[in-house]
Amino acid sequence: MRTSIQWKIVVIYLSVVFVIMVVSGSFIICNIEDTHYEKIKRELMSSAETIEGRLGVSSGADFEESMDKVESTLSTMVALNQHAIYILAPNGEVLLGSKSEPAVGEIMVSDVLPEVIAKKTPQTLEWPLFAYKEAKYDYIEHDRPILDATTGEILVIICVRADATDIYDNVFSVMKTITLAAMIAMGIAAVFSAIFARMITVPIKQLTKSSKQLAAGSFSRIPIYSEDEIGQLTQSFNYMAAELSKTMTAISSEKSKLEKILENMADGVMAFNRQGVLIHANSVCYEMLGNTNMDHRFDFIFPKLGVEVSFDKLLAEESNGERVKNEEGIMMALEDKFYNLHFAPYMNARGESEGVVVVMQDVTTQQKLDQMRKEFVANVSHELRTPLTTVKSYTETLIDGAIDDREIAMQFLSVMEKEADRMTTLVQDLLELSRIDNKQMQLDMRPLDLKEIVKETIEAQKIHIEKKGHRIIYEADEEMIYNMIGDSARIRQILHNILSNAIKYSIDPGTIHVKLYKNPNIITLQVKDTGIGIAKPDLERIFERFFRVDKARSRSQGGTGLGLSIVKEMVELHHGKISITSKPGKGTTVTVQFNVS
Ligand code: ADP
């Protein structure tokens, strides 16, 4: 059971008052008893001494003679004080007595008499401590033997008895007073202790109430009524509440800041507690892994994703200081995405591992770029190695004697020239792309009429068109100016690449339809061929560097696989758009659009 401090204080106060009253009362009673006893004892002794002196007895003969004198002395003594006086024979028999009880001839019954007879010395009845409790004696007795001067034997014993009821009456009256005083004192103590206890408990109750409110998040101040310890405690509490409020505000703003950061991060973040239970995951995480892969435990999530990481090992290694920092993280592929996972155990204030934070970075773009870079280097190496190998083998054959056969030598040299041209084209294309990539392409942007450039390019390609037996249809409004802003050399290059593709990839003599038209804002150039066409999956990759539907055919036609990539980059540099539609076996249409200037 919970006893309030108020009751404890009251009980302690009352107990202290009670104990004080009992102890002091006992002392007082003892003292009163003792004082009374001593006083009566002294009176009894002096009475006995007086009687002895009056008797003047020193031998048995004297006693017989002075029997009358004894009697008169006795009556005088009795008259002088209220004590009972007896003259006893050495065996305790009453010889004379001032009271009828015990009668003459009877043996005096007394606790002290046997000792007097044995020791032959005067004795007084010993008064026991707190005798009133048992009311053991109702008298106090002093016995004084008178000894024979010659034989030393007891002649007579003077026995003086006083009534003890006085002592008891006195003690009981004092006890009554003390009990009354104790009750009044306890009553006063109860009232004062209750008031005092209230003075302490009221502020404490207020503090308790406020601390409960504090725990519930309300930081109200408590009024201070005094400057004593309670006042100081209240002041400290108010200070603590104010500091706590500041800290809580700081923590909550820090928390919301952190939440905002976590939510707006491009990376997925998950936090697990010591037991490996998921305690936080930002929305990016759910987007990255999908709801089906997300679970509430570390051991369920990562094995499902095919990532072998032991949670316990991570924690253990961190606390042993064994963890080797894995800056690169663990790569994970999920569907068509790549994620880099970083596992970082976190500590509590005592330096013990508290859990693990997992950061997931979407590295799909880097991964793809990396892949493209690798493929690009491999492609470049391959594209350069092929003509170089050809040139080298032809050179060796020439050195080995083929040079003497002029016809073969000329044939070889023309192959070597073709390969050298291919290499030059390749290197030029690569340089062009690198300039575009590094934003070093200098464009000489001027107003121009696209119709003129189209006509010039067709004219320049005419020889190849005719050589292949293709028919070319050029369609444009001669009266109209297809005015745009552009670098004429680059526009020419765009047209050249598109047109030469149409020529290259039309095997049977076909028709190449070049159409130019314009609406108020857009100039459209369409090059349509009746060539081999491109299948849909290849069409999606057509602008990739080094992508070729048929490598051998492209190479035989002097292609590098870079033409359309350069075209796309250049069209975009002119803020234009390019699109290709195609049907295998039917033909391809390339559409380029520029803004009217
Ligand atoms: P290449 O130097 O090989 O011609 P391009 O980048 O110009 O490189 O073209 C990439 C690939 O697209 C070619 O290898 C070819 O397979 C295909 N291609 C381009 N234009 C046409 C077209 N008009 N008809 C059919 N296939 C084409």
UniProtKB/TrEMBL annotation:
Catalysed transformations (reactions): ATP + protein L-histidine = ADP + protein N-phospho-L-histidine
InterPro entries: BphY/WalK/GraS-like (IPR050351), HAMP_dom (IPR003660), HATPase_C_sf (IPR036890), HATPase_dom (IPR003594), His_kinase_dom (IPR005467), HisK_dim/P_dom (IPR003661), HisK_dim/P_sf (IPR036097), PAS (IPR000014)
Entry's localization field: Membrane
Keyword terms: Kinase, Membrane, Phosphoprotein, Transferase, Transmembrane, Transmembrane helix, Two-component regulatory system
Domain PAS per the UniProt entry, residue ranges: 254-290
Domain annotation HAMP: ranges: 198-249
GO CC list: plasma membrane
Biological process terms in GO annotation: cellular response to phosphate starvation
Annotated TM spans: 12-32, 178-200
PANTHER family referenced in this protein's UniProt entry, alphabetically: PHOSPHATE REGULON SENSOR PROTEIN PHOR
Name listed for the protein in its UniProt record: histidine kinase
Species for this entry: Zhenhengia yiwuensis
